[in-house]
Design goal:
The chain has a three-stranded antiparallel β-sheet, with helices on one face. Helix 1 runs antiparallel to helix 2. The chain is α+β, with helices and mostly antiparallel strands. The chain has two domains: 67 residues, no CATH class; 71 residues.
């Protein structure tokens, strides 16, 4: 998990985990949790004295949500607007390939298989040769490609959720140890 130091309007500084943002606007002062929806944890003070308690509540809620919700991913859910075929995201083709020394060219679909924390794999799903191609063979290849992609996406989501939950355990330990408490203010600069 990524952490950053945040200085609030009164000069107090806190170490804040990702998915929690500081909101200081006119009469609104608090920490906004942005994970599985948004929720504001107000300081309930105009001077920022409740910021530490509000951050602790926001962090506890973040840990709870990570433990119950699937981790968000950046996997594409729908085809790009500029994609010319009606194939689902991660599948393209048919691709026509000729082999050196061979007479018949074959057709296949390219499938991009996402892997969490690693580079995606590119796999090919055979359709037929140019001479034996039929719409039925194409539909069968599309079904196989969609199944391959769906299995890879499911494995990706599970791995992302496992990784996020492992981070939440560390976050819980940090919360218990008080690592998100107020930090020393920065020293004032002397005017030159």
């Amino acid at each position: 998990m990524i952490y950053r130091d945040v200085e609030i309007f009164n000069g107090d500084r806190y170490r804040v985990p990702q998915c929690i943002q500081r909101i200081d606007h006119r009469a609104t002062h608090g920490w906004q949790l942005r994970y599985g929806g948004t929720r504001l944890f107000s300081d309930h003070s105009n001077d920022g004295s409740g910021a530490e308690a509000a951050l602790a509540l926001a962090t506890k809620e973040l840990i709870r949500r990570i433990g119950t919700l699937e981790a968000p991913t950046t996997l594409q859910r729908a085809p790009s607007a500029n994609k010319s075929s009606t194939l689902p995201p991660g599948i393209s083709g048919p691709i026509v390939r000729g082999r050196s020394g061979g007479r018949a060219r074959d057709l296949s679909l390219a499938v991009l298989l996402p892997r969490f924390g690693e580079a995606a794999l590119r796999r090919s799903v055979y359709i037929a040769t140019e001479g034996t191609f039929t719409q039925t063979k194409l539909r069968g290849a599309v079904k196989r490609a969609v199944l391959m992609r769906a299995e890879a996406e499911e494995a990706y989501r599970k791995a992302a959720t496992r990784a996020r939950r492992a981070e939440a355990k560390i976050l819980k330990g940090m919360l218990t140890a008080g690592e998100f408490r107020k930090r020393p203010r920065r020293p004032m600069r002397k005017a030159a």
